[in-house]
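Appendix B: complex inputs.
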Amino acid sequence: MTTALNIALSKGRILEEGLPLLERAGIRPTENPLKSRKLILDTNLPEVKLTIIRAADVPTYVQFGAADLGIAGKDVLMEYEGDGLYELLDLKIARCRMMVAEPKSLASRDDPDSWTRLRIATKYVKTTQRHFAAKGIQTDIIKLYGSMELAPLVGLSDRIVDLVDTGNTLKANGLAEVEHIADISAWLVANRASMKMKQQALKSLVNRLEQAVA
Ligand code: ADP
Ligand code: PRP
Ligand code: MG
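Resulting structure:
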């Protein structure tokens, strides 16, 4: 008897960088997930299926057991407030950093130690609140769903909290990094009940992924 295992992951970077990793772990989807419109994909392993969902939905699917495993960015996991999730393995893909950024002209004379109140646009509302509350800094947060770099240019906010990799997006919009919040990469997460009920099958898959990361 084989145990069915569902892995939830998102299109975009996670899938692009995750597919080669899964391949090294011996898991290959039977059709190209970058092209297919299917949301549940078979793999070369009859017991393993890939569920393709939005990045921010991965923790929800895993918490409620709709997927046994998930691949999600640390940014998404930090922002998620549910429980019943185990963070099993740093997959070391989709690496970037979460930063506070502001107009370059301001950054050259700004001192984070002097901050008392900030007006920040971000998609990471809870993480931003938590970060600044811990430092005793008040925040007015404007929730956006993307293109945060635009906010300071149009006077929506003074600063943003966003992900930075090459820094090209900040640079192209006249912004500069001013404070580091967290290093980000994608993690393998598991449903708590699956960890007990499907222990053997999960362990063998996680071992293979561990070797693929190394
Ligand atoms: P979304 O549509 O949710 O932005 P992405 O594919 O852009 O989806 O991002 C998926 C994950 O990849 C993010 O949750 C984050 O962990 C990581 N990521 C996002 N932007 C970058 C980047 N520029 N460089 C590296 N990793 C990134
Ligand atoms: C991400 C992130 C930044 C950019 C940073 O956006 O939100 O805007 O990458 O990368 P860089 O430092 O290498 O320029 P993404 O490309 O994912 O666009 P979207 O999420 O807004 O679609
Ligand atoms: Mg993105």
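The first helix runs from residue 13 to 24.
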